[in-house]
Amino acid sequence: MLRCKKDLYSGCEALTIVYTTIVANTINKSKPAYSFCHFCNMAKHKRSHEEKRNQAYDLYMNTDKTQREIAKIVGVGEDTISDWIRNKKWREEKAAYSVTKEKVIANNLVQILNLQEAINKRDEKWATPAEMQTMNMYSKVIESLSGRVSLPNYITVVSEFLKFIHKANPDMAKKVADCTSEFIQTKARELTR
Predict the structure, then answer these.
(1) Model confidence at 46, in pLDDT bands (50, 70, 90)?
(2) What does the pLDDT look like over 7-24, one tens digit per residue?
(3) What is the distance in angstroms between the CA of the first residue and the CA of the last residue of the chain?
(4) Residues 91 and 112 in one domain
(5) What residue numbers bound the domain in which 160 lies?
(6) CA quadruple 107, 111, 113, 117: dihedral sign
(7) 180 and 110, same structural domain?
(8) Do 78 and 124 have their domain in common?
(9) Which helix (H) or strand (E) segment is 4 a member of?
(10) How many domains does the chain have?
(11) What is the CB neighbour count within 10 angstroms for residue 65?
């Protein structure tokens, strides 16, 4: 009686006899003493595939490796990695774990600081209406996430104040704009600590 070497399923011995008998009779009548049944080979392949997918998942979620690097490490094709990312929604899951309230606030503050620095480098030291709208947008996001007095409040007051001064005295607005830009940058730094 022939027995499956892998014996992954209970009752595998009987399946092995049937499978081995068919194979032995059609391919090589003098073999085999031991064989692998079709069902155990399928189970091993499936388990190996699942293990590879789990390893790829861990690498994708916990490292900054590219899909190509992950594919090489795991031993599958890049297309397989891409399929897993798309079909198993790994990208969405990674984003859900990596995007935090603190990161969103910090990114918005950096954007405001960058805009303020760009404004300070030019001759006219006050923000254009489009720039003010952009800063207000970033500020509102920060305010809604932080739940405390935040940069949007400062930016709104400063922008309204600069508009008021500019109408009355454009030269004075230029001088005040220098101070207000520094003020906003200082407040932004304080909020990121």
Answers:
(1) low
(2) 444 444 434 444 444 444
(3) 75
(4) no
(5) 101-192
(6) positive
(7) yes
(8) no
(9) strand 3-4
(10) 3
(11) 14
